[in-house]
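Contributing new records

If you add data, match the layout below exactly. Sequence lines come first and carry their own label; structure lines follow with theirs. Keep one chain per record. Anything else will be rejected by the validation script.
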Amino acid sequence: MKTVFHLIFVTLFLSPTISNAKTGIDFKNKSLEEAKEMAAKENKIIFVDAYADWCGPCKWMSANTFPDLEVGNYFNEQFISLQIDMESEVGLDFDLEYGIDAYPTLLFLNSKGEVIKRYSSALDAQELLGFGKRVIDPTSALSYQLKKKIDAGDMDENLLSEYLAACIEDFEEPDNTIVDTYLSILENKSKTDSNFIAEYLIESNSYERDVNNDLVNQYFDKLDTSTLIEDEPFTVFYYFQQDLNAPSTLYFIENYTDFGMVWGEYVEDKLGILLVNATEEIKSGVIKKEDLYAFIKTYSEHNDVDYTELKLLIDEILDDEY
């Protein structure tokens, strides 16, 4: 009897409390203009989750990140939160103003609608919580603290590297001057010690900087092609090798299947890049058609591909180019 009474007590008094409790981010059913008015009145920042119904990472965040209790407590206190379906009429208007080109895109706006921060990717609960806290207090970010040391004159290579890594962790755009300073240090080291060339090339590419072509050539001159399938050599090859007749390129197409087993779609991508680049070089007179034909013949011989059909495809591409 006591047990039955206990169960009734739990059902009547505890269950409603649990079922009515709200956790996670409280997204407001309001327009952006209404959110701006609220933000101005309450002296808050607007948080926007720009999503699409079909987007897997968006669904993942809705199921795992936004319902988190700690995230909800912080965001509900600090922000006016909105979710906008980018394929709705409201979303299309929002896209025109903010240029959303990836989902999810997370934006923090001031009461005038100006972007404070934005980030395009899914975040877990702790990542989003940290992001939100850095929006409220930018000085709490490690990248901010390290930049203060650099701005004070400390140009130690390790400090610069630590700052750039912190920018990634903080979802912060790095200072371009610091990026260029760091890459200059790596370039100078590479000129005297080839062990640093790959690091210089990969870092330069990640920050979309032009590279020293002499160092590119030096890297491939020293490369043992049997190591090309490994992480560092393949990364450099993927981004920088365009020569159809280079030993590394020939090794790549002669062992194409093996590379595919390790690198998957990147292998098809690289082959496509080589072919497209070759057609451009034919068009500009850098190489002749025969060079490309010889390349695809070697590729077909090692990969059980019909050369005649592949040549016809290449000819169609070339005909479209001219």
